[in-house]
Structures are given as structure tokens and as C-alpha cells.
Amino acid sequence: MPMPIRLSTLFLRTLREDPADAEVDSHKLLVRAGYIRRSAPGIFSWLPLGLMVKNRIEQIVREEMAAAGSQEVHFPALLPKEPYEATGRWEEYGDNIFRLKDRKEADYLLAPTHEEVFSLLVKDLYTSYKDLPLSIYQIQIKYRDEARPRAGLLRGREFVMKDAYSFDIDDAGLERSYQAQRDAYERIFKRLGLDYVIVKADAGAMGGSKSEEFLCPAEIGEDTFVRSSSGFAANVEAVRFEPSPEVDASDVPAAEVHDSPKTPTIQTLVDFSNKEHPRDGGWSAADTLKNVVLALVSPEGKRSLVIVGVPGDREVDQKRAEAWFSPNDVEQASEEDFANHKGLVKGYIGPTKGSKQFLGEKAESKIPYFVDPRVAKGSAWITGANENEKHVWNLTFGRDFDADGVADIAEVRAGDPAPDGSGPLELARGIEIGHVFQLGRKYAEALDLKVLDENGKLVTVTMGSYGVGVTRLVAVVAEQSHDDKGLIWPESIAPAQLHIIAAGKEESVFETAEQLASEAEELGLTVILDDRKASPGVKFADAELLGMPWVIVCGRGLEQGEVEMWQRATGERFAVKLESALAELTARRK
Ligand code: ATP
Ligand code: MG
Fold first, then answer.
1. pTM of the model
2. Best of 27, 89, 161 to mutate for ligand 1, by most ligand atoms within 8 A of CB?
């Protein structure tokens, strides 16, 4: 016999005030409603109601993983460093991993993700193509020493992830395994009632071939994505523009170096050009080529400089730069970098590959020079001449200067054409809730995961990895579904479907509420019963804050044989006869 969750005994303390450290609504409300409690930055304890929501999400994930043919396993969170050294991630993760030593001074880590140890277990047990395909997953705590553990459960340093891994003998198999996980993700997020988009993701450091992210559109999201009206969707990190086609430069005048005193910024340069070197139609920032000096820091900590020429009306996008130059970190060049490279003349840096006549003798030609894909062969620019207070006009790409390659790291702007020609892009922000990834053979190769194929030949296994942020989902649902009074859970994961309030002092009110609760449970509903000795006002406010989808108030109306029913999501409230209340609820839930 199920029992209602009784607020008189539940380990719960609701708060009227927002926690001081909370920036986003889901964080404020989950703490105020007594679902979670902060233990340390990015580390939370789970109270009974929060645990119920988390468990329900995990249950949905388990059901859909089973439907996708994936089997549940469980790995340790505490692992030795060796497997992560073999794949290079002990270093690549940098400060993001929690590292520790055992009593024998051996290195360990709290795993940020588990590709390595899943692969090793499969290697340990399986030897033949007949064993494959295989899909296994766990729901487990991950540790990442995030730089900015903000927004509560959205970015924890300890958080729960469902991570699945697939093992196949060939690319077609990997594609099927990937699709099975992708479909399962769609079902999971639909069951949670979430609004989400699937975007192309950057395959980046993991070196895989194909990757997509599931993002929930939200202003507070840390990911920016673009989409066109005809179906293109990508994380900005993963948008790749084709190099612009060559343009005819036969009419472009010869390049000329001029003095350009006090023009270290794009705006001062444009103003100067329009005054001192006017042309029909004038000059704008888009006519200038800004040469940005970046420092790449390798996973081993090696620092090297690159210069990237971008149209002067665009900024470099830090995340796109990190994705492009991954696995390196990308930093602005420091004063020290400039001091170490005397040829870099701040404010007047030009391309470093090309005609010395225009680009000076001292140009730092050893620093790799890349251009934005908008810099077409034959296009002409105003740009730095690598000499103090000098610029060069009509410097033409392919004619007067060259590059070591393309670097597609400039910001993407609303209205930019989609790379696949599907029209102008719009930008939005989102929260990543899931990630599906065709890893290919990189990890299997690093860890020597091979099986015998049909011909008795050893072949490397191809892998996929698939993550869902379980605890992040608790917050994302709260973020998408709340109002100024509190949380609004969808029935699929609410701690209880029905919240019954005994609003009054009379014994009969409490008896009626008890009776109604047990009848509701007989119908299969989960119930919270507010049987506390507290004022109706306190109980009403808590019902709204806690966020069960349906509320029935047993109060004054009982004198006329009526109760009040609320639907939390719509805000609708209406009186209904006590004896038909549950029938009415059943009808409305359909
Ligand atoms: P992000 O870009 O948000 O840092 P990620 O790309 O590093 O995430 P993955 O390694 O792809 O994350 O992890 C799979 C899923 O785990 C993510 O889609 C996300 O839902 C969740 N997740 C990742 N980092 C965190 C975190 N710090 N707190 C809570 N959930 C997280
Ligand atoms: Mg990801």
C-alpha cells in the first residue's frame, strides 16, 4: 500500500528568500523549495523531493536505454591515471580534473568521463567480431573542476551523467549505434516535456567524425547556436564557412604604404582613411584586415603564437578559436609575448607572409599566419605594415600577401549566410543537455582495442560515446517550467502528481484530506499530503513553490461539499464536488 508523502514529517524546509549565491531561477527555486542544498561550490546535497525528481529522470533514461538495446553497468569514479595517460587526456583535461594520490603516492583521478575504462573492459573480455555490436552505459557521478561552477545544478563540479558507449566492427555499425542513441535521446527529452534543438557539434579534441548536441534554448545558456529557416543548425563552435571564391583583382590599384599616425584601432584607421585617402563610397571597418595575435597553449603547456587576419568589423570568438585550435587553449598574446617578438608592432601588425616591400623587413615571418575564410584570393585590404604608425592600402591577398592557411574563428553574426546555402542564420543561446558522438577509432587505437574479423584479421573497433546530463536535466526542466511563485513539474518526473492541502483547523478537514489521499493512491496517483499544523496561506504558498502538477484544497468549501482544484501549469482554479473531484482530475489528466 503506497503512502502519501506527508509534509508534517517530510525532511523539508522551504525558504522565502532566494539563496544569495543563486543567479538563475532554477537554482533559486530548487534551493528555496528544498530540493537541493549547496555543500560546496558546484557540489550539492539532495533532499527527499530532489532525489525523487532525479530518480524519476534516471528511470526514464534507463527505460529508453533498454529500448535502444544498451545494457547498464557501473564503473568506479575513482580511477588510476594510466588509462587517461594512454589517450593523452590526463594532460588534455588540464585543471579540469580532480587529481589525487593514494598512500603509495600513485596518481588517481575522479573521472570526468569514462571512455578509457569502458574501452579497456571491452578489450579485457571481447576478442571477436561476433561479440559486436555492443552498447553499454552507466548512470554515474562525474567530477570536473569547472572554472565557473555557476547556475547550481546546470554546471556542477560533481554531477550525474548517463554515459553510453558503443563498440562496432565497421562504420555502418557505428552509424546504427549512433542513431539508436540519438533516437533514445529524442524519446527521453520528449518524455520530460522539454523544448530542444539538435545541432551539429564540434568534433574537436576527441578527434571523432560526427557529433551532435541537444540544446534547450535559454537566455542563460552557455552555448550559442545558429540556425537557418531551412534546417541548418549548429553550435557556433562547429560552424565552418567555406573559403570565399577568388575575386578578380585586375582593377585593384597597386598597394601603397602610408604614414598613418595615431591609428592603432580599427575606428581610428577607418576615420583616417576616409580623411586622408578617400575613395568613392568611402572606407568601412569591413575593408580593413585586423591581424590578431593569439597564444596557443598545448596540453603539455607549450606556448606558441599565431596571427589571424580577420575583417576589421569582426571580433575573434573565443570559443570558436578554442574549437579550431583544439586541443590547445587559446589566449590573447601577452605583453611578454610582444616583448619576445620585436617584429610585432602593436596596433600596426600586418600579414607576415608576402611582399617585404609592403610588409616590412622585420615582419615576424616565423609566426604562422592564417586568414579568415572571408579573405578571398584577390580581395584588397587596408592593414598594418608591421611598422609603427604605418598602414598599407590595397594590399591584395594572393598578389601581395599570403597565408599558411585558414582559421575560421571570427564571430558568427545574425544574418550571416548559412554555410550550406540554406539562408541567413539566426543566433540563440542554449543549454547542452545531451551529446552524441562518433568517436571512431581514436580511443580504440590508443588503448589497442582490436578484435578478429571474419577473416581472422585483427581490426580496430570503432566507438561512439553518448552523454546525458541527468542532474543538469533537473535544473533545465525547472528552468523551462516555473513561474514567479515556484516550480511547475511535468507529471513524468514530479515527486507526486497530486498535492492535497488540508486548509483549516477542524479535524474533519484533515480527515477528508486523508480520505481523499488514500482514494487517489488507490487510483494509482502519487500524492503529497499537507497535513501540517500551519496556516492555509503558508500551505498555499508552499504548494506553488513545490510545484506538483495538480493541487486539491480541502478547506472552507467542504461546508458545501466542495473542494478547490488547481492546475499548476495553467494556473486554472475551480471548485468541484468532493465526491467527483478525483473523477474530474482523471478526466483532465487524459
Ligand atoms: P559543457 O560544454 O556544458 O561543459 P561538455 O560538452 O563538456 O559540456 P560532455 O562531456 O559532452 O559535456 O558531457 C555530456 C553531458 O553531461 C552534457 O551534455 C551535459 O548535459 C552534462 N554536463 C557536462 N558538464 C556538466 C556539468 N559541469 N554539470 C552538469 N552537467 C554537465
Ligand atoms: Mg558536450
1. 0.91
2. 161
